[in-house]
Amino acid sequence: MGVAVFLPFLFSIFSLFALIFKRDSKTLLSLESSYSFGVAFSFGALVALVFTISVKDIAFGWATTLNISASELSHFLNSIAIWKGFCSDCIVSEKLADISHFVRLGGAVKKEQIDSALLLGAWWKYLAMALITYGVIFRAILLFVVKVLQKGSKIQIIAQKNEEHLRDISSNYSNKISLDELKKRKFKLIKYHTNCNLASSDDADDIVVCVKSWEPPILDFFDYLEELKDKNSSSKISIFLQGLGDKAKKSDIDIWLRKLNELELNYEVIV
User: Fold this and answer.
1) Domain ranges within the chain, ordered by starting residue
2) What is the dihedral of CA 179, 182, 183, 187, to 10 degrees?
3) What angle do CA 224, 225, 230 make, to 5 degrees?
4) How many angstroms separate the CA atoms of 271 and 240, rounded?
5) Which of 61-65, 90-94, 101-105, 146-150 has the highest average model confidence (pLDDT)?
6) Mind listing the pLDDT tens digit for each residue in 74-91?
7) C-alpha closest to that of 94 among 109, 76, 112, 80
8) How far is CA 137 from CA 4, 38, 113, in A?
9) What does the alpha-carbon distance between residue 234 and residue 259 come to, in Å, rounded to a whole number?
10) What are the beta bridge partners of residue 188?
11) CA atoms in the 13 A half-sphere facing the CB of 114
12) Which helix (H) or strand (E) covers residue 237, if one does?
């Protein structure tokens, strides 16, 4: 009971504080390994118990130097037996606790114990249920919780990396100018399924293609740009990301810049 149930259960309770106050990936990985080993150990102990009582006739007993009576022990063990509602035989009765109590003097077996030899074997039911409940099921639940938290932690890490990646693209994309800089130049405006209120000059060599920034960048648009570039090989082609308001949102700009980076296209982008 002490080695296979109580100590592992107390360790699992203390480790819950780590789940509450510290949920970094290193801690979750350590707890996952600990709970996995705990479930395997308890299941192995359960198998060993069932095998042992199947091939041997064991008389279970208990002894202590502390002043604990059989009724007190029985009451304590049954108070933590949460399975007693559906397995009334899997508890320690006061009679069982009393008859299986070995005393220190001489260590001899009492006559009552010999007469109740069959009753002494009933302890295995309580031990088995304790291993199943607190060793296997309880730790399996904790293991499931850790795996869920670990999955959430991985998703969060991936999201942070994606956010950092987007931020890097936005800051490192060199071929990017502001709308104020664009207005200082002459250019021919092409509206790609949108309505831009920019001054266009039909005799300008430079071409600015206006596109909705809030719509996702699709390959058809970039195919259109490549065709436009082939037909106007001497012209500088730029992309103006039109926003819903005065300016395009940073998140929309980052998505467009990431797509340009993936396709290895270096068009000038106006934001």
Assistant:
1) 2-165, 174-270
2) -130
3) 100
4) 6
5) 90-94
6) 999 999 898 988 888 899
7) 76
8) 14, 11, 34
9) 25
10) 207
11) 4
12) strand 237-242
